[in-house]
Design a protein that fits this description.
The protein has ten helices and eight strands. The chain is of the alpha/beta class.
């Protein structure tokens, strides 16, 4: 039995079929490995009976804390809300669908405690029972993130992890509103150990991560931790500017040796040059506007309507 206390944070969205089994398996594990613990479920604006089931479970489990967001803010913001409620020494973060196996929590804790320099132990999936499309998109997301952002991670890492309390305390110091909680955990530079684990199939229901949400997550990481898109526009503008000058020179030569309608050459030269120059200027301005935008948006990422 570990001497540390334990918080388990799980975002919930339309999981009425899973909650009872999730808590049964999770409790069976946690109560045998630590003396002091809490389980925090965050309802991210579910449209089914998830909240009612969570309330019923809370009435029977004094270690269970449940929070309800005022609407659907997305999984990453629900995670941030749950982390803000934690009070224990070690924090477990996992999905609700039982693809992350509660029985693997001791494996992650052992790996974390065996590496004194590490602050996180993260599941690295040896095998995932997901669709080929989802696996391909997940791999693409990781590849793109490593190539064009400041965040570089090992392949096949999941949300499932154990963290020291200091990690969450450091996360709370970040005022950023556009970056996701999991991305910030990597950006902070916390040392972690990857633990090979197998991921089960979903216990019930369908994944809430459709293509649009996965793309939104990708864009959130790119635009929060990379100026690459704006720089691409800058480079493109510079290339267009150079290209327009070359084209302008060609048109002038053609004017001198050929028969061209009066005024057409000068008009095209001006259009091509100004068009390319405009893109270059927009790219430079975008560098500054993008940075200001990332730092000045201060709307809350989530609103907790109720905590029980």
């Amino acid at each position: 039995m570990y001497k540390q206390s334990l918080s388990v944070v799980i975002p919930i969205y339309n999981d009425e079929e899973v909650i009872n089994e999730l808590l049964r398996r999770l409790t069976a594990v946690v109560e045998t490995i630590v003396k002091e613990y809490e389980i925090i479920l965050v309802d991210d604006g579910s449209r089914d009976r998830s909240w009612e089931i969570m309330q019923a479970e809370r009435a029977q489990r004094d270690y269970l804390r449940i929070a309800r967001l005022s609407r659907n803010f997305g999984q990453q913001n629900a995670i941030a809300a749950g982390l803000s409620l934690t009070t224990k020494d070690l924090i477990v973060l996992m999905d609700s669908d039982l693809q992350d196996r509660p029985e693997d929590i001791p494996v992650l804790i052992d790996a974390l405690l065996a590496a004194p320099e590490a602050t996180m132990a993260i599941a690295q999936w040896e095998k995932r029972k997901d669709s080929r499309i989802k696996l391909a998109l997940s791999g693409l997301f990781q590849h793109v993130s490593n190539r064009i952002t400041d965040i570089h991670t090992m392949p096949r890492l999941g949300i499932f992890r154990v963290m020291k309390k200091s990690v969450v305390e450091e996360l709370r110091r970040f005022p950023e509103k556009t970056a996701t909680a999991v991305s910030l955990l990597y950006y902070i530079g916390n040392k972690y150990v990857a633990v090979p684990l197998k991921r089960d199939a979903r216990f019930a229901g369908k994944s809430g991560y459709n293509l649009s949400k996965m793309l939104a997550l990708t864009f959130a990481r790119i635009f929060s931790f990379s100026m690459f898109p704006i720089r691409i526009v800058t480079y493109l503008g510079a290339l267009l500017c150079i290209g327009s000058m070359i084209a302008a020179l060609g048109l002038i030569i053609y004017k001198l040796v050929g028969n061209v309608v009066t005024g057409w050459t000068s008009m095209m030269v001006l259009l091509l040059f100004l068009f390319g120059l405009n893109f270059a200027f927009l790219g430079v301005l975008g560098e500054y506007v993008g940075r200001i935008f990332l730092e000045t948006k201060q709307r809350p990422n989530y609103i907790i309507e109720q905590v029980v």
